[in-house]
Amino acid sequence: MPTSAPLDRLDVEILARLTENARVGVAELASALGVSRTTVQLRMRRLEAEGILLGFQPVVDLTRVGLGVRATITLEIDQRVMGAIVEGLRALPEVLEVRIQAGREDLLAQVAIGSLEELQRLTASIVDIDGVRKTTSTFTVATPVPYRVQPLLDQLTRTAGWGRSTPTTPPAE
């Protein structure tokens, strides 16, 4: 299986519009992009089959549900028990994501909690996992650039065409 599938501008336009509104219909996408519904359906199926489009999920504002404190916790661990530590982190609902790192810290955990007191309790729970040697927490104050991939995809395909599909009209903005 190839590690990278080629994308063209049409693929990126479809992904951009799905990023803006994952509930947009195929007919609406086709109309906005000036291509047939079949073309959009085939492209979406290919993007899913090649593992580029991983799914559709809601974006939840955690602050609005009472989880206004976001933090990054780095962990220095006994690497011989990394699997058990990752499973211990997975069991903590406040842990949104865990990444394995190269460098001084071994793991990076993104967490969401309601207060600094809750963060203190969460950190204590993490330190209680066998093999965790040390944690360091940093807090997110603001997110001026939220997670995004569109500018990178635009750059990647800036010289690519639309493959075999040519829009009947320029895509609607």
Fold and architecture overview:
The protein is α+β, with helices and mostly antiparallel strands and 173 residues long. It is 35% helix and 17% strand. It contains 6 helices and 4 strands; from the N terminus they run αααβαββαβα. It has a 4-stranded antiparallel β-sheet with strand order 2-3-1-4, with helices on one face. A hairpin with a 6-residue loop joins β2 and β3. α2 crosses α3. The mean pLDDT is 91. Keywords: DNA-binding, Transcription, Transcription regulation.
Describe the structure concisely.
This protein has 173 residues and is an alpha+beta fold.
Strand content: 15-25%
What strand line-up does the widest sheet have?
2-3-1-4
Count of individual helical segments: 6
Q: Mean pLDDT across all residues, rounded?
A: 91
**How many β-strand runs?**
4
- Rg over C-alpha atoms, rounded to the nearest angstrom: 21 Å
Set out the fold topology.
Elements: H1 9-20, H2 26-33, H3 37-49, E1 69-77, H4 82-90, E2 95-100, E3 107-113, H5 116-127, E4 132-139, H6 150-156
Quick tags:
single chain; 173 residues; alpha+beta; four-stranded antiparallel sheet; 4 strands; elongated; Lrp/AsnC family transcriptional regulator; transcription regulation; transcription
